[in-house]
Specification:
The chain is of the alpha+beta class. It is built from 7 helices and 10 strands. It folds into 2 domains: 138 residues, Jelly Rolls, CATH 2.60.120.10; 91 residues, Homeodomain-like (Arc Repressor Mutant, subunit A, Orthogonal Bundle). The protein is globular.
Length: 244
Amino acid sequence: MKYKKIKPCEELEPYIHFYWELKGNEVERQWERVFPDGCAGIVMNLGDACLTDNGSTIMEFGKTYVVGAMTSFKDSFIDNETHLTGVCLKPATFANFYNYTSQNELINDTVEFEKSNSFNIDKTLENAFSYFDHFYSERIKTKTNQLQSVINDIHSTGGQTGIYELSKKHFTTVRQLERNFKKLIGLSPKEYSNIIRFQNALSLIKKSSQNGSLLDIAFECGYYDHSHLSNEIKRNTGLPPSLL
């Protein structure tokens, strides 16, 4: 399997994490697992039909799909004729480019886009990343992200800030904050914070030595104990920490 990613043009960096491309090969035919990160994405299938959403959805050649934020891991089957390309959006930026349904309706789903929102197959095949820059530069509707300051605070504390404290700091109510998160990200503020905390712990586990203490990582990331962290890791990845 070959996978590459590239940053968007400077104008789009506040809204898009990266563009990516994945190609299968004859040697490896496997299920590929991705973990929740709080982001939505757009995918176009340039190869054979591809099984995703843990086997419940088939992505067809030439079609574009929106992938909602995830609350748990997702498996896709990659074979020798798989060829996918797509866009990883930053949190709460989907609405900067699309007039579409509230993001909470897309949670854990891969949904086919109508033609007006889809990528052009010929331009994507010719030079996908250059085309994506042009596509999104032309499409951007607003350059503001009303949740950006809240998101920044969540990331700066590794997902350990309480929702009440967040709402108070940003002069809103918990209820209004929850509505905005559900609409623009698809997740509640607590769910999003938990995902950021999980991603922080995952990064520390991968960086730690074999002798690194899972208990120390648990405490550093705000989990009650080793067992609490292990359960969260397994819920988000389907794997125990020892297999990451």
